[in-house]
Known about the structure:
Layout: E1 4-8, E2 15-19, E3 23-24, E4 30-31, E5 42-43, E6 53-57, E7 64-68, E8 71-73, E9 79-81, H1 130-144, E10 162-164, E11 167-172, H2 180-192, E12 196-201, H3 207-216, E13 220-223, E14 229-231, H4 234-242
Parallel strand pairs: 11-12, 12-13
Antiparallel strand pairs: 1-2, 3-4, 5-9, 6-7, 8-9, 10-11, 13-14
Helix pairs in contact: 2-3
Amino acid sequence: MAETVPVRCPSCRRDHLYAAQVYPCACGAPVVPPLLRAAPAEPITHRTWTDDWVTVRCPRCGRQDQWPQPELGCLCGTVLRVPVRPVSAPAPAAPDSTPSSAARPSHIALPRTATAVARPSFRPVTIRTARDAVTAAALYLKWLGFRDVVQPEVRPSSGIDLRGPGLVAQVEPSTRPATLRDVECLWLNGLNISASSVFFSLAGYADDARSRADDLGVPLFVMDLTGRPQPVNGPADELLSTGV
């Protein structure tokens, strides 16, 4: 379990308790960025590729990889970058490369078929709550051909709302567009278990999130309150056309 550290927002002086996200290393060991307890958190005013990733060493195998920079959203609206103890490692990769070892694929390719798959009409469910949005996404994934899609009773800290064999999916039911960080974290979770990643959002996606999803091969769908997803990028069009 990740260590909990106190974090004070410099904008409103509100105190928080924060625990960094735990990710699986390629060797299977849990890895968490080592937080600097005494260092102050800094408001994020602009983003760069270098600032959004940190180098973390696996305590079991010694492997060094790039992981998402720990962040905390304060109730006042400020997004804080939580400091991490540095590791002696090469600088983060440039934006057109992936944050993983070159020995691993840049993304988990979705199966392809020569022709479109014939399916019965999708029967959506009306979305009234965040839980309804996850249910609608689960039904849609099953309709696409994914098997044994399940959702946890309580949303895990990883943000993964749905899982199945070879699948992880995230649903953003809020009124904010999904961010670049949202897409990259979902892709990273899928990459580490060799699973396809699929994202659903009610409010759409930030421009940089859509661009990065195209680079990583992550299908993006938007949903309206009728519960009917629509593809918004090439990988989503492909998945809708071919299924699994």
